Amino acid sequence: MPSRYRAPRGTADILPQDQPFWQLVQGTAERLCRVFGYSRIETPIFEEVSLFARGVGEATEIVEKQMYVFQDRGGQEMVLRPEGTAGICRAYLQNGMFSLPQPVRLWYLGPFFRYDRPQAGRYRQFTQFGAEAIGEADPAIDAEIIELLWRFYLELGLTQLTLQLNSIGDGRCRPGYLEALRSYYVDKLKLVCNDCEGRFQRNPLRLLDCKEERCQPVIAGAPPIIDFLCPECADHLSGLRRYLEAIPIPYAINPRLVRGLDYYTRTVFEVMPPGEGAQSVLGAGGRYDGLIQELGGRPTPGIGFAAGIERIILNLKRQGVKAPELPSLQVFIAHQGQAARVAAFRLASDLRRQGISALVATGQRSLKAQMRQADADGALFAAILGQRELAAGTVVLRRLADGHQETVPMAEVGRRLQAIKLG
Ligand code: HAM
Fold first, then answer.
1. How do beta strands 394-399 and 405-409 pair?
2. Is the peptide bond before 301 cis (omega within 30 degrees of 0)?
3. What distance in Å separates the CA atoms of residue 93 and residue 89, rounded to the nearest whole number?
4. Distance between CA atoms of residues 386 and 398, nearest Å
5. How distant, in Å, are the alpha carbons of 43, 49, 61, 78, 79 from that of 71?
6. Residue 396 near residue 345, CB atoms below 8 Å
7. For atom 33 of ligand 1, which residue has the closest CA?
8. What is the pLDDT of residue 277?
């Protein structure tokens, strides 16, 4: 009987039948990170609010509108983490990772929370796979991070993706650009949406990121930031492009690409699936050379990305990619009679100790019903234990695909199943 309780809006249950895709994605992330020399880190699901207000920026949509903020019982303002980079930089500082050889290469995979309007591919609880390389400014590390993200999609089997790249400059050249952007917009404010009027005052770079129809012609005519980069930022971008071309990784420079988090400097990038709008970005990231200092550390460069797992799985399904099936149950143990019941329970325990997946029938079901259950559980074999087998110290081992069966000594069942598996 269905209950009146539902999963909260914008959240979803990840059911057993969804697991093959999750395993595929997590396994690929784990394998690639090992190959690229990244170590796993997991930080708490909740942090102090001010970490994100400082790190991500007060005037960002995430901090202004999307954080799940709560006061704990001690009166502290906490937040369910809306993104991973600020927490990782906090952990880098707190755990003295600045004393390790730099850069420190880290990856993570876990849930994040944003109070947003739910729709296909946009949720209030979602999962990110992310990587961060902290402590190195060389554009080779930008290329490495982008290669890791790109290879992740390729190895999953996604096709027709595009990688967009831009540089948004640094503390030296960006102020000049923002001046130019403001002077361009100042006589066009009547043409743009209300939000853009606010952005003009508080966060002008985000003007370029508006999705409103009426703002598009204005955005199209805006001066490109690339023309305003200082020589160091321009060199950094050409260095990165050289590395990407050497691998090669196809990319398109998008001079209007900016990001929704304020910590970015220089490199920013996004990966898009074919023919989709902005809320379908599959993964994105960039450089954040000022963030560690903002959080109280010494000036330390960093770069990273995060990829939304739910969106990736949606696209894998759309593109018809099949996830490998998870291993089937090896044996279901059916039994008849009171004495056989306990022997069957012991046999299941023995088999599991040998690493063989085994279920044993429970309740008071007929042998026929137990065999139906073996099928329903997807077992490869049924081991049948009745009075006669119990007396002889054997079981009947039946291959469920074709009904072929043999009698095997009880003590040999494990070895027999292993041999069949290897054969
Ligand atoms: P972000 O662009 O906010 O960046 O999020 C990265 C990815 O997370 C998005 O491209 C998308 O795939 C997924 N995502 C974001 N919000 C949602 C949502 N509401 N529902 C489903 N998926 C979502 C960051 O979070 C940065 N921390 C990335 C980064 C790491 N930059 C440097 N290092």
1. antiparallel
2. no
3. 6
4. 14
5. 20, 10, 21, 6, 8
6. no
7. 304
8. 64
Q: Which atom number of ligand 1 is nearest to the Cα of residue 128? A: 8
Distance 161 CA to ligand 1 centre (A): 17
Bridge partners, 407 (sequence order):
396
Q: Determine the pLDDT at residue 278.
A: 52
- The amino acid at residue 160 is Q
CA pair distance 99, 89, nearest whole angstrom: 14
Instruction: For residue 259, give the ligand 1 atom closest to its CA.
Output: 2
284: three-class secondary structure by DSSP: strand
What token pair was written down for 334?
Answer: 């059916």
| Residue to probe by mutation, ligand 1, list 124, 300, 311, most atoms within 8 Å of CB | 311
Q: What tokens appear for 285 in the block? A: 């990231």
Is residue 346 within 8 Å of residue 411, measured between CB atoms? no
Q: How far is the CA of 142 from the centre of ligand 1 (A)?
A: 18
Give per-residue pLDDT as tens, 117-176. 999 999 999 999 999 999 999 999 999 999 999 999 999 999 999 999 999 999 999 999
153: part of which helix (H) or strand (E)?
helix 139-156
In the block, tokens 């202004």 appear at 64
Whole-number pLDDT of residue 51: 97
Please give the number of the atom of ligand 1 that sits closest to the Cα of 83. Answer: 25
Give the per-residue pLDDT at 2: 82
Work out the angle at residue 98's Cα, subtended by the Cα atoms of residues 92 and 99, and round it to the nearest 5 degrees. 130
Ligand 1 pocket, 289 CB below 6 A? Answer: no
CA-derived radius of gyration, the chain: 28
Q: How far is CA 210 from the centre of its chain?
A: 25
Structure confidence by residue, pLDDT tens digits, 365-407: 999 999 999 999 999 999 999 999 999 999 999 999 999 999 9
What 3-state class would DSSP assign to 380? coil
Which residue lies with its CA nearest to atom 10 of ligand 1?
Answer: 283
Q: How many CB atoms lie within 10 A of CB 328?
A: 12
Residue 301's contacts (CB-CB under 8 Å, 6 or more residues apart) are: 134, 135, 136, 137, 287, 288, 289
- Structure tokens belonging to residue 123: 């949720």
Residues of the chain below pLDDT 50: none
User: Residue 48's closest CA among 296, 225, 266, 214?
Assistant: 296
Q: How far is 414 from 411, CA to CA, in rounded Å?
A: 7
Amino acid at 329: L
